[in-house]
Amino acid sequence: MSHDGSPLFQSFKLGELTLPNRIVMAPLTRNRAAHGTDAPNELNALYYEQRASAGLIITEATQISQQGQGYVWTPGIYSQDQIDGWKHVTKRVHAANGRIFVQLWHVGRISHTSLQVNDAAPVAPSAILAKTKTYVESGFVDVSLPRALAASEIPGIVSDFVNGALNAGKAGFDGIEIHGANGYLIDQFLKNGPNHRTDTYGGSVENRARFGLEVVDAIVKVYPKNRIGIRLSPVSPANDAVTSDPSQVFGYFVSELAKRGIAYIHVIEGSTGGPRDNTKFNFGALRKAFSGAYIANNGYDRDLAIKDVSSGNADLIAFGKAFIANPDLVERLRLDAPLSIPNSNTFYGGGAEGYTDYPTMLKAAE
């Protein structure tokens, strides 16, 4: 049954940007930045250019400082080399009529001493080891024990986020997405599993939301708010970050974000890359509490995407892994054509194989 008249394939106004469709390319870590500089390279520019038919591309998570890095060969946006590399990416995407936001990232405790300056301990709200792995030059390893941030260090991290936003402007991005999901630093503060602080950044819902809101408030001062989004994962146990009160803390956080007038919230519904119904949670309440656009993510196929946009459950739908193997995903979804299956062995690190060599339908038919 054809649904090409579905709102999923129709334009949408996100802030002052008009997106040609409501299909978003989700952030996907691929570990292919230049070794040594963590700057985007020619291969990365080609990869994003190939996927420019997405209504909106959100880049792979991009660290705002070396301290914010948790995996080897992920791109940064704090050095001139990195800004220049991203400038090349945005030029190519724009030349292909695409729109692209950069996702600004601080991993917090999901890191390894080998990635930090002088082999330092990663930083976190509290000195609690995450039961998860990270990816270094030798492959997957357990993350390192973090140290708790002093309250006096927090403004420095907020200003690294601001610097990332300013650099995104220099690099020609159409907007930014703040990474507040998947057990990274902002999510670590929000959730009481990883956050055992007793100062103004821990304990109550308001205190745990403070750091994330300080980041948003600082960025809004230097960057257009209608070009800012944030990614959240209220009930995802990703990277060992859980909370006993997801409805309370995310209900509060999202209602506060609504007051700031940012463009969108990008919500991972359920367990990242896993079941959508891992725990009871009312995502519709977040949608209602927020005045901007709602991007839904996690486990979407064509039918569910069409259904949720048509019914108003979401404004936009983000696809992750499907974009890896299908550079022309939008066209395939429109035509209900078969999707190529990605090779998980080439997700992280490496070169063109499993990155820029997936054919479009037309190429595959030749």
Protein architecture, described:
The protein is α/β, with parallel strands linked by helices and 366 residues long. It contains eleven helices and 14 strands. It has an eight-stranded parallel beta barrel with strand order 3-4-5-10-11-12-13-14, surrounded by four helices. Strands 1-2 form a two-stranded antiparallel sheet. Strands 6-9 form a two-stranded parallel ribbon. Helix 5 runs parallel beside helix 6. The radius of gyration is 19 Å and the shape is globular.
The count of strands amounts to 14
* Average residue pLDDT: 97
CATH hierarchy, class: Alpha Beta
Give the helix proportion (percent range): 25-40%
Biggest sheet character: 8 strands, parallel, barrel
Task: Produce a short descriptive summary.
Helices cover 31% and strands 16% of the residues. With 366 residues, it is of the alpha/beta class.
